[in-house]
Specification:
This protein is of the alpha+beta class. The protein has one domain: Jelly Rolls (Sandwich), CATH 2.60.120.10. 34% of the residues lie in helices and 31% in strands. The chain has four helices and nine strands. The strands form two sheets. The protein has a five-stranded mixed sheet with strand order 1-6-5-8-3, covered by helices on one side. It has a four-stranded antiparallel sheet with strand order 2-9-4-7. A hairpin with a 2-residue loop joins strand 5 and strand 6. The longest helix has 23 residues, at 110-132. It is globular, with a radius of gyration of 14 Å.
């Protein structure tokens, strides 16, 4: 199981940019509540402010994302269906970022773009390692 604990990109400036315009400022989810399901269309990615999100593929938890981490970015990049289900592993407060806001942040904040790419690269390498050890 992967654990994401990186909080480096969630600076005040990016939090402010991420919550402008029509995006909801903060979403609260109770432990066990579904954030999104595998196969859903991705309208938002989510930055974890408080709590933990469990990323599930079928009945297997493949990653736990904690404060400062994010989920759902792949669906914003490729506009494909969600590849996993995200469930609140504890009570959570999440910052939703729409596709429009995501693209704006990628263009305006190189640190944000690098953080997203780094997280995706880390997930891919760890998943490859797990598959090669199976």
């Amino acid at each position: 199981m992967l654990k994401s604990n990186d909080t480096s990109f969630v600076s005040g400036e990016i939090k402010e940019l991420a919550t402008q315009d029509d995006d909801p400022a903060l979403i609260n989810k109770a432990a066990g509540e579904i954030i999104f399901k595998m196969g859903d269309k991705g309208k938002f990615m989510f930055v974890v402010q408080i709590g933990r999100i469990d990323i599930m593929v079928e009945d297997v938890c493949v990653e736990q994302v904690r404060k400062g981490g994010f989920v759902g970015e792949m669906a914003l990049i490729d506009q494909a269906a969600r590849s996993a289900t995200a469930i609140a592993g504890s009570d959570c407060a999440l910052i939703p970022i729409s596709r429009w806001r995501f693209l704006h942040l990628v263009k305006a904040q190189s640190d944000f773009a690098l953080q997203v790419m780094g997280a995706m690269e880390k997930r891919l390498r760890e998943m490859n390692a797990r598959l090669s050890n199976s």
